[in-house]
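User: For a benchmark we're assembling, each entry needs the component sequences followed by a predicted structure for the full assembly. Here are entry 17's components. Please fill in the structure.
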Amino acid sequence: MTLMTRLFGFRGGLHLDYRKEISTGTPIRVAPVPPQLVLPLSQHAGAPAKPRVRVGEQVLRGQTLADPEGFVSVPVHAPTSGTIVAIEPRPVPHASGLPALCIVLEADGQDAALPQTEWPAVEDVQSLEPQAIRDIVRRAGIAGLGGAGFPSFIKLGPGRPVEALIINGAECEPYISCDQMLMAERADEIVAGVQVILRAIGAPRCLIGVEDNKPPAIAALRRAASVDARIQVVVVPTRYPQGGEKQLIQALTGKEVPSEGLPLDIGYVVHNPGTARAVWRAVRYAEPLTARVVTVTGGAVKAPQNVEARIGTPMRFLIDFVGGYVGTPGRLLMGGPMMGLALSTDELPVIKSTNCILAATAEELRPADDAMPCIRCGACQEACPINLMPQQLYWHARGKEFDKTRELNLFDCIECGCCAQVCPSHIPLVQYYRYAKTEIWSAEREKRKADAARERHEARQIRIEREEREKEAARARKKAELAARKAATEATAASVPAATSAGISVDDPVARAIAAAKARRAVNAPADAAATSVKDASGSGADTDAVAKAIAAAQAKKAVKAAAAETSGTGSADKGDAVALAIAAAKAKKAAKAAADSASPDADDAVSLAIAAAKAKKHAQEQLTDAPSPAKPGAAAGGTDNDPVARAIAAAKAKKLAREAAAPTQGATAGDDDPVARAIAAAKARKAAKDAAATGDKDRDA
Amino acid sequence: MLYAVLALAVLAAAFGLALGWASIRFKVEGDPLVEKIDKILPQTQCGQCGFPGCKPYATAIAAGEADINQCPPGGEDGVVKLAELLGLEPKPLNPENGVAKTAPTVALIDESTCIGCTKCIQACPVDAILGAAQQMHTIIADACTGCELCLPPCPVDCITMVPVKDTPKTWKWPTPETEAA
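Assistant: Structure for entry 17:
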């Protein structure tokens, strides 16, 4: 151990009125277990823990009540035995004063510990693997006891070589003395914890930085540290904010943590002495973090002192434990007067990061007088330990120019309050910085949310488009089928004149039925052929062929039947006539338009226009009258309805049609030698044809 | 004289080639202005601007077909940002497009009333509603933009807009108001 250690110091900072002596007169007292404990699920930085117990459950001291959720999270343990009476939002020590989810534990007074600890106590701690230490520290729910409450196990796994471990025993804020008392009374446990941490992070040495206004703590630590040459107690001058980890690193090593960086970036890991002791107790005695030393102090407290309290103890209970209030407290703070959190009520619970409960009288702290305008004196800039420009930050924060505050390194501000302390205009500068920080965070959150919304919206658009495309494809498929069917219908129309020329009346429903059936077959045949060819390609053999044939036969039957049904159903409606009519109408329309166009040059002349219109109309009428004429020859040639010859021909045609319907399948399945299937198909087709003929007869009879 | 002309011609050709090459090599895909405008818009996708979403509105602004004051969810701040980006004068929100909300809201389905008709799911522009036919639906509050497009299609009016609650994680420090005039 070197006798002389060079100290570097940091710029700025202040000498304050410390008032620590009012709470250091008596040793740490162990507070009793309160009747009811409130355990917030978010006592640490990161995600809140997730309850694993239910309301009404009996729990024992040391039992895990809530599991960590995610990586940056630690569990919560039962500080005593009792019953879970509620899991609900309760007010917690937070600047917002908003309630957060808490587990409420009704103590049973037994304070019975778990019969077997949740992990084994380790006798020979130096034999533990670093990862095992981290696991234990995590299971013990240890979060930094200095105030920020960062999960300690993360800082025990640096993932890179560490130059030195630094134990932050500076405790620079006025009033607070919990670390000081702990260092003086439990120096051996702190040193043992340091050894465990050194093993976990693989650091070669440890610097314990203590301010020179704590001689008993320094003496005790030096005595305890004499067992290990790697541990060095360094006395630093008393100056606020020496206890800021970046300031302490700078004071001890001369190195500065980079902007918006972490101590680890320059090879240092900083822990609080209380955390070191908690690590020791977790590893050696398998004790989870369920109690901590809290300084209960201030001019409004009767007997200020340090107490070891269970986590979750209501603050009021501790204040009563040290004698209660003297008069009315002006302000209640968690933490010190510089950086502490103003509390609205003393009914809040002690959490893992509660180092001090400060009940100050109204006169004790600087009154929050009305701020005066900034005179740009620059005193704040002199005091700033980070070398920021507080007055510029203030102006920009006030003007809501948050991006400019960011450019001026707002996020390097540790909110130590030196600037506000020295401000002659009493401007609450830190409030502006906190305001600007939360505004920026909120804007970033909104931006993330907007980006997520954009992504979701775009994903939705893509999905809708894809579905639309698929629908379009289905529609196109259907359209193609429809077109094929239409082509078949046209074939029917074509067959009508053929029938006429063959001397068969168009009105003859049987002939129409045949034509329709033919058309249908024309449609079905390619489909069948396609189906057959597919089946053939798949090479599934005779079975499939038989099936295909059966299908073809069934289709033929259906086609014939449908044709007959159509004939019997519609009777007089002549498809060919309808088409001819429509064409005639369209022609008439066109003619009318042409007439109108020809009249248009002298469009001014209303009379000529009217005449043209009348002409067009007449022309159209004539066209319409002419229109049925193509059908007329058929009608003229009619009266053959009862002609038995025609009937016979129709029947023969239907028969042939049915045969033909079956034939393509046979042709397509040339290799087929299953006579039974063929016979069945043929029989079926025959029957279908017969049915068709019968229907035709019946129809005519009717 | 000839040398001067030649030298200039060579230079012009060289720079022309360089510029031509650069215009191909460094070609920016898409319209960066639309992207920039879209970044400012709140992505509520509510359609209050008269366009079917934030991107179409951004495209319309970039094309000069829409004014910058048609986005109530963006509020006056959004108008100011758009004005800054486009070098225009900020103007008050167009009341025809609606009024800015004072506090952010999210939709909440009264699950006992919901009949599971999926109409709101089809209306939600950001797929923030979970449910299936004949099944109770629920809002994914984290993904809800508060656009209110799910309110009109609901046949049983079981959707209400509720203000987003502050948690200790989202809470913001208030503006210090101890400043003397």
